[in-house]
From TrEMBL:
Name by which UniProt lists this protein: Fatty-acid amide hydrolase 2
Top-level taxon of the source organism: Eukaryota
Keywords tagged on the record: Hydrolase, Membrane, Transmembrane, Transmembrane helix
Active site residues of this protein: K157, S232, S256
Residues passing through the membrane, by range: 21-40
Lineage: Eukaryota, Metazoa, Ecdysozoa, Arthropoda, Chelicerata
GO molecular function: hydrolase activity
Domain spans labelled Amidase: 94-540
Organism the protein comes from: Dermatophagoides farinae (American house dust mite)
Length: 564
């Protein structure tokens, strides 16, 4: 009991005393812990109920997205690049189809926040000329036909610097800032032949798990406009789900390449730590020691596009390319598939029946149809995932959030700012002010030297060791990405601890792929889960994602498809 509790080590003597000296000590402790657990579960029900009641303010708005009428909108990037390369499809045509679609859907979902459509059309025309020359004259030396993403429209998360575009990270104080030079990952994207159409919406300071800020406003979920798209790559996932884009680049420090694609029914891959170049991302993760938590990565509507885009993202890093060896064939017959249906924390929202059933469907397929070994995972420390993430985040001399949020010019005066924001007079969101207030109340730079704090950090290390040995030889862990579908716009505050499901894997530095499994029977919203492997085994999670997408169909459109 002591071993698996987060009780302050200074208090452990009480437990030991009861166990050894009090008659029926063991049983008494068991009863106390059961009662605590029941109490926590009841509190959770109450908080979820409270969030659902406030959610009534936002009327459900389904079936709002206009129908898809052009078949080009429904092809994978890989297929489209094959067509542009062989001259069957003009890059300009392709780019214009996606621009028109963005113009049609974006007013509803507010996903693309700044565009460069004119430049995109110009670039497409230039590619078309080069392609035509290269195809018609064998003497022309131009490697344009080798470009992996030739003429493919792409969008980029606003926090990643794209020349000429804003890079506010959702901060109002940066609203007039324009980027002078592409980030390295954007340079890689351009070199691949992809054509950037614009940048996509993010939360304020990328801080929260819904996408809303005072520069651009809120992004909305294409399946139900009253619900969130998730964060922080929320604009990216929403525009892909609404068929306004097929591939894009996002970033992830606690779930941002998994939560939005989960809520919007698309795919995302969080790379192993230290593989992708994050230079220039705004906000920066705050401290050198946190860099291992932050990654850039691919977001795609179709699973098979994840790998080619991932390869482009890391193209400048030969060491990473060699370590990951993404094209090395994967033999899943040797892998064990561990399933975890719930993390065991009573203070999180219980995993919905839709998600549970989705996990079981995948298991049935992998076990019965593919003949793979599937096992129920036992990971007792997993229930502390959110605490492990928060303590790890705080375990360095980084400036406090209250300082970061004003770009290190002083410190946010959180209470007055919160009151101002209640009356719509603040440049900051309420949620941001509340986060700073919580930080002031709970955390100070001395906190991390307390014994209970070190204990939680150690638990994270133990969890990492356990998973590392469990996931030897290309084995896989499959578990919920979050316990339930996208909440209403007002429903995020009291449920933020649910994000522990995703954020712990940033601490553990492991690769994770979010897999879309279509639409839930009951919720009528996208369902899916995450696939985890040992660090550097990215190719395994990607292979399983492709396999499942092929079997179950992956993304399902949020609207009618009317193609003649
Ligand atoms: C990742 O990089 C950080 C420095 O940013 C370093 O401390 C850490 O050891 C690296 N992790 C691995 C597994 O290489």
């Amino acid at each position: 009991m002591i071993k698996n509790s987060i009780l302050d080590p200074d208090m452990e003597w009480i437990i030991t005393m009861i166990e050894t000296h009090v008659p029926f000590g063991q049983s008494i402790l068991w009863i106390i812990s059961m009662m605590a657990s029941i109490y926590i579960r009841i509190s959770r029900c109450f908080l979820d109920g409270l969030m659902d009641i406030t959610g009534l303010y936002y009327w459900t708005k389904r079936n709002q997205i206009p129908p898809i009428t052009n078949p080009l909108l429904l092809k994978t990037a890989t297929e489209l690049a094959e067509k542009t390369r062989t001259g069957q499809l003009k890059c300009e045509t392709l780019v214009r189809v996606f621009i028109d679609r963005i113009k049609l859907v974006n007013p509803l979902i507010n996903a693309v926040v700044a565009d460069c459509f004119n430049d995109a059309i110009k670039e497409a025309k230039e590619y078309d000329q080069r392609i035509e020359r290269a195809l018609n004259d064998p003497l022309v030396k131009d490697d344009v036909l080798e470009l992996p993403l030739l003429g493919i429209p792409i969008t980029i998360k606003e926090c990643i610097p794209v020349k000429g575009m804003p890079n506010t990270g959702g901060l109002y104080s940066r609203k007039d800032f324009r980027v002078k030079e592409d980030a390295q990952v954007v340079k890689n994207i351009r070199k691949s032949g992809a054509i950037i159409l614009g940048v996509t919406n993010v939360p304020e300071f990328l801080l929260w798990w819904d996408t809303n800020n005072h520069v651009y406003g809120r992004a909305r979920n294409p399946y139900d406009l009253s619900r969130i798209t998730g964060g922080s790559s929320g604009g990216e996932a929403a525009i892909q789900a609404a068929a306004g884009a097929i591939i894009g680049v996002g970033s992830d420090i606690g779930g941002s390449l998994r939560i939005p694609p989960f809520f919007c029914g698309t795919f995302g891959h969080k790379p192993s730590s230290n593989m992708t170049n994050i230079e220039g991302n705004f906000p920066y993760c705050g401290h050198k020691s946190r860099e291992r938590l932050l990654v850039n990565g691919p977001l795609c509507r179709y699973a098979m596009d994840l790998k080619p885009l991932y390869k482009v993202i890391i193209a400048d890093n030969e060491k990473a390319m060699a370590q990951l060896d993404l094209d090395c064939p994967v033999d899943l017959k040797k892998s064990r598939f561990y399933f975890l249906y719930e993390d065991g924390d009573s203070f999180k929202t219980p995993v919905s029946s839709d998600i549970r059933e989705t996990l079981k469907r995948a298991r049935h397929f992998l076990e019965k149809d593919c003949g793979f070994t599937c096992i129920d995972a036992q990971i007792p420390l997993m229930k502390y995932n959110f605490l492990i993430f928060l303590t790890t985040l705080g375990d360095c001399d980084a400036p406090l959030l209250g300082e970061e949020i004003v770009e290190r010019r002083g410190r946010l005066n959180a209470w007055p700012e919160l009151i101002k924001s209640l009356f719509g007079r603040s440049k900051f969101r309420k949620i941001t002010c509340m986060n700073v207030i919580l930080e002031n109340a709970i955390y100070s730079p001395q906190t991390r030297h307390k014994r209970w704090y070190r204990k939680i950090i150690d638990m994270g290390k133990q969890l990492g060791e356990q998973l590392d040995s469990m996931l030897e030889d290309g084995s896989i862990l499959i578990m919920p990405c979050l316990p339930e579908k996208a909440p209403k716009h007002s429903g995020t505050f009291l449920r933020v601890n649910n994000c522990g499901y995703t954020s712990v894997f940033n601490v553990l530095e492991m690769p994770v792929t979010q897999v879309s499994m279509g639409i839930g029977h009951r919720s009528k919203m996208p369902v899916g889960f995450q696939i985890i492997a040992k660090r550097l085994n990215d190719r395994f999670t990607l292979a399983v994602a492709e396999l499942l997408a092929k079997e179950f169909g992956g993304w399902q459109p949020p609207c009618e498809v009317r193609i003649k």
